[in-house]
Design brief:
Blueprint lengths: L7 E6 L3 H10 L10 E5 L11 E7 L8 E5 L1 E5 L5 E5 L3 E7 H13 L4 E5 L1 E8 L2 E7 L5 E11 L12 E13 L8 E6 L9 E8 L4 E10 L5 H15 L5 E14 L6 E2 L3 E3 L15 H16 L12 H16 L4 H11 L2 H8 L5 H9 L3 H10 L18
Parallel strand pairs: 1-2, 1-11, 2-8, 5-13, 11-18
Antiparallel strand pairs: 3-7, 4-7, 5-6, 9-10, 10-11, 12-15, 12-16, 13-14, 14-15, 17-18
Length: 406
């Protein structure tokens, strides 16, 4: 499987969103010399996450549109009191991918390339070595494999979170449902529906991704410090589908669940001369929202552009300093209870266009727009929180039992 002395241009550890996105970016046509690439993915079911949903927004067509499940042009937020705030997207589209469809699409493209090698093995150790880096792996049959490259990109989830001033968990469970009668507007995403009981600490909301007039992914989500039990998630979904959405008779044909750390921790993107961290472990998750996919694409394109030009790859900071500073203030304000989460987000979408809010969340707004957005928030509590942040210590946070990226 691996020949002694072989050194590839690039070794990628992990075949999820980050690993496959980087492999796709590195192998797009146009390079003067195709880069030799090894993609290693674990065969162990216990180390591979279940099929999951990724959502993001994009202007125009994208590289992965062939795998899209759906896209929408309108977003809706429901306040606690039933207020409806709806925004139309002009140039952007809110898009949904399923991980299995994405993996099949990109995997089939990579499998057809002679300079790409796909290896099923579990990377136990990655390390810098003379002239590059190597991954020490074991196959399902117990064989030891060493994969060497001039550069190694590691997307495996971290075992611990870096110290942070504020950390909340975005945790959720969702059902794919089919109703007996039309129940959904298939052109509108219910981005946040706060007509659900709120926890004592943090916030909760419903999230509805319609896949037709009778089909949708319906999720119950919390931002809080602790997770719920499985019966608690199911009870919350029962209440939301029955009493709030009033779906009537329906069947649930599959489910998904996940946990995403929302933290102002500082993630290292480079470990030594040739080992780089990508994806969530490299800080791609937006601290205040949990969205990851768009930042992964920016990272991947930047790395690919450098390597294909023969330059040293330097992973860009996934989110700008100003955006991270604003996120840190929001996380702390939510964590302390200084701002009411449901009222905060409802007010934000009421005062700002949906497209502007999404562009801010992608780090594509200028200073003036960020100031206007800041003025749409509770200014006093936010300023008080911003003033105390520099004096707060960074502390460890227990890593959740599972992780999924949205």
């Amino acid at each position: 499987m691996s020949r002694a002395g072989d050194v590839s241009d690039v070794v990628i550890v992990g075949g999820g969103a980050a690993g496959l996105s980087l492999a796709h970016a590195l192998t797009r046509p146009g390079a003067a010399r195709p880069l030799s690439l090894v993609l290693v993915e674990t065969p162990r079911p216990s180390l591979r996450p279940a099929a999951r949903t990724w959502c993001f927004w994009q202007e125009g067509p994208g590289d992965f549109d062939d795998a899209l499940v759906a896209s929408w042009r309108r977003l809706r937020v429901h306040g606690r009191d039933g207020e409806v705030v709806e925004g139309k997207l002009d140039r952007l589209r809110y898009k949904m991918l399923r991980s299995d469809g994405f993996e099949a699409l990109v995997g089939s493209r990579l499998a057809a390339l002679p300079h790409v090698r796909l290896v099923e093995a579990t990377a136990e150790t990655v390390r810098n070595v003379a002239g590059g880096a190597e991954a020490l792996c074991v196959t399902a049959g117990g064989d030891r494999v060493t994969l060497r490259g001039r550069h190694l990109f590691d997307s495996r989830p971290a075992r611990t979170l870096p110290p942070a001033r504020s950390t909340l968990l975005q945790h959720f469970e969702g059902w794919f449902v089919r109703t007996s009668a039309p129940a959904f507007d298939d052109d509108v995403v219910h981005l946040m529906d706060f007509r659900v009981p709120q926890p004592a600490h943090g916030l909760a909301f419903g999230y509805v991704l319609p896949l037709g007039s009778q089909n949708a992914l319906v999720e119950y989500t919390q931002f809080s410090r602790t997770l719920l039990s499985r019966p608690e998630y199911e009870a919350a979904l029962e209440q939301y589908t029955r009493d709030v959405l009033r779906l009537g008779r329906f069947e649930s044909h599959s489910a998904e669940a996940g946990v995403i750390p929302m933290t102002d921790a500082r993630f290292a993107r480079r470990i030594g001369p040739a080992v780089h961290r990508i994806g969530a472990v490299g800080g791609a998750t937006r601290p205040a929202t949990g969205y990851t996919f768009s930042a992964v694409q920016r990272q991947s394109k930047a790395v690919a552009a450098a390597l294909r030009d023969g330059k040293e790859p330097r992973l860009p900071v996934p989110h700008g300093r100003r955006a991270l500073a604003m996120d840190a203030v929001l996380l702390r304000a939510l964590d302390t209870g200084r701002v009411n989460g449901p009222d905060f987000f409802t007010r934000l979408f009421r005062r700002m266009s949906a497209e502007r809010v999404l562009r801010f969340l992608d780090g594509r707004t200028g200073l003036r727009e960020d100031v206007l957005l800041g003025l749409a928030t509770p200014v006093g509590p936010m300023l008080r929180t911003a003033a105390e942040l520099p004096f707060l210590p960074r502390s460890p946070f227990p890593f959740p039992r599972e992780e999924s990226t949205g």
